[in-house]
Amino acid sequence: MYHVKSRDNNKSYALKVIEKEQVTSKHTKLRLKNEIALQKQLNHPNVLKLHHHFEDKERFYLVLEYCSGGELYSYLNTQGKLSEARTKDFFAQIVKGIQYLHSMGVMHRDLKLGNILLSQDHSVLKIADFGLAVALLKASDLRESLCGTPNYLAP
User: Fold this and answer.
1) Model-level pTM?
2) Quick one: which of 64, 126, 70, 66 has its CA closest to 98?
3) Is residue 110 among the annotated active site residues?
């Protein structure tokens, strides 16, 4: 991930660069196309925004909202225990983001502290990394594949 700035307005963005040589299998290509398609349709204060995507001969590029506060995982490691009020606020933001995703028929499938990003002032949380996310056609659809980060999987 790279921090980049627009030449037009000097606005900051995060640039996710994916080497095409790493996207060789049909399954991996489908996952990347799925990630882009899902994230393009999302627009919520607690979900990371995909602004643009493009490719060249060697790489795919995703221009994403920039969250200079870093990952929630790193923030908690440096801050230690949070106050009850701060914890409630963070939890409420995560729930709002998940509610929005579910209302859009999106199941994230890899929600973890490293996939939640913070704004510069650490007041706004954004759900990120839609590489394992899937779109459900209806609420009753089930997924039986096992995926995600092992320590964060539901029991």
Assistant:
1) 0.87
2) 126
3) yes
